[in-house]
Specification:
This protein is α/β, with parallel strands linked by helices. It has one domain: Rossmann fold, CATH 3.40.50. 46% of the residues lie in helices and 17% in strands. The chain is built from 10 helices and 7 strands. The chain has a 7-stranded mixed β-sheet, sandwiched between helices. Helix 1 packs across helix 4 and helix 5 packs across helix 10. The longest helix is centred in the C-terminal third of the chain and has 20 residues. The radius of gyration is 17 Å and the shape is globular. The N and C termini lie far apart (40 Å). The relative contact order is 0.18.
Length: 249
């Protein structure tokens, strides 16, 4: 096993320590792709990080092609190294969703589906709404969009919110006891590797001035997708405040 594959596996363990049912929600997303997309279709892994969704798609659907798009140069490089054994079935694209022209980075490729996981909460509401409009223009009629993320209870339900936070805390505690790294520990491990350390200053430059965003509710996402032009949108999977939302163009 290459070092990059080991680091991607470590990323997955670190991420799963914050998301108690991470693999279950991936399964829901991949099920939707298999039901909605032709076997040799193209899927865009949006805000892909090092390519956790891409890796699972490539293994599960051996004729599928994947484009992994992100703005983090360190994670993109990890993905390129960890998934290079898939050859030209996977490509990595450096693009910033804050840039209204980000779609041009795809070079005219139009995916059959777009998937994203634990990423779009980084976008402010007005940027997210514009990205959804971009996706509605990019996808063909009938195209699939699926997003898995924590969508906090913004409707004044403190009991639901408390249960979700306790679930997060328990998952982190148990996984740490079993050797999972936390976010900061994982990044320290990654940038200790020379090939990734060289990209760390550029990552700091790109993200240094971006502030945390307010949590956006399930209702916001569904309404924004419908307003963007998707024919249908709604949740298909839920664990407390963790959802998979899908939409059809």
């Amino acid at each position: 096993m290459s070092r990059a594959v080991e680091l991607l596996a470590s990323w997955d363990r670190q991420q799963a320590s914050y998301i108690s049912q991470r693999e279950s929600r991936f399964e829901m997303m991949l099920d939707a792709v298999q039901l909605a997309v032709r076997d040799d279709g193209i899927v865009l892994d949006l805000a892909s990080g090092p390519g956790s969704i891409s890796a699972r798609l490539l293994e599960r659907m051996p004729q599928l092609s994947v484009i992994a798009l992100d703005y983090d140069p360190v994670l993109l490089e990890l993905g390129r190294r960890a998934l290079r054994h898939h050859g030209d079935r996977v490509g990595f694209v450096d693009a910033d969703l804050f840039d209204p022209g980000w779609v041009a980075a795809l070079g005219g490729v139009r995916p059959d589906a777009v998937l994203s996981s634990t990423a779009l909460h980084w976008l402010p509401g007005h940027i997210l709404a514009r990205v959804y409009t971009d996706l509605a223009a990019l996808l063909p009629a009938g195209g699939l969009f699926a997003n898995a993320d924590h969508l906090r209870f913004a409707e004044g339900r403190p009991f639901f919110d408390a249960l979700s936070r306790r679930d997060d805390e328990r998952t982190q505690r148990v996984d740490r006891e079993n050797g999972a790294l936390d976010w900061d520990q994982w990044w320290t491990q990654l940038v200790a590797e020379p090939e990734f350390a060289a990209l760390a200053p550029e990552r700091a430059r790109r993200f240094g001035e971006r502030l945390p965003n307010s949590d956006l509710s399930l209702g916001f996402h569904v309404a924004a997708l419908r307003t963007a032009g998707f024919a249908e949108a709604g949740p298909v999977w839920q664990h407390l405040d963790d959802y998979v939302v899908i939409a059809q163009r």
